[in-house]
Design goal:
Layout (H helix, E strand, L loop, with lengths): L1 E7 L4 H12 L3 E6 L13 E9 L2 E2 L1 H14 L3 E7 L16 H6 L2 E4 L11 H11 L11 H12 L2
Parallel strand pairs: 1-2, 1-3, 3-5, 5-6
Antiparallel strand pairs: 3-4
Length: 159
């Protein structure tokens, strides 16, 4: 089975998650940034995995564009969808806010892979917002959810 992972990352966490996912997949895997996906022959892949980071309650625009432009093809393929988002980790259906209902219904695997905060990579405005958020008494530093990535890969690996 030929698989492609198409992703969009802002500060690198999604790229880290894709790397972890790639290690757990048992197929011939290609990886491509969503902004470059137009150069791919998506028809040649049996499975397409799409995922991106979520900031300010929005999926990366490159991923939104990829999904919109390729929706009919995605609905013909084995499909996995994920987000990288540090909040709210406890809501299993949080991913449902970011992809089209038809894609969500068709996807065999859906997950939130968690997230990490890299203040040193953030733009000034994002860094200031994070410093305010960190002061909240309920704040906990987020992390990548490797178990979620492994479970997602297990579903994709099943014929």
């Amino acid at each position: 089975m030929k698989t492609v992972i198409v992703y969009a990352s802002k500060y690198g966490c999604t790229e880290q998650c894709v790397s972890i996912l790639e290690q757990h997949l048992k197929s011939d895997v290609s990886v491509c940034e969503a902004s470059q996906a137009g150069k791919l022959d998506l028809q040649s892949f049996d499975c397409i995995i799409a995922g991106a980071s979520v900031y300010a309650l929005k999926l990366r625009k490159e991923m939104q564009a990829f999904c919109t432009q390729n929706e009919s093809l995605l609905l013909q393929k084995k499909l996995g969808l994920f987000i990288c988002c540090s909040t709210p980790l406890k809501q299993a259906d949080y991913i449902d806010h970011f992809y089209a209902p038809a894609l969500l219904e068709h996807a065999i695997a859906k997950a939130n892979f968690g997230g990490e905060i890299h203040l040193e990579k953030m733009r000034w405005g994002d860094r200031m917002v994070m410093k305010l958020v960190e002061k909240s008494p309920d704040f906990q530093y987020p992390h990548i959810l490797e178990k979620e990535i492994q479970q997602f890969a297990s579903v994709i690996n099943n014929p």
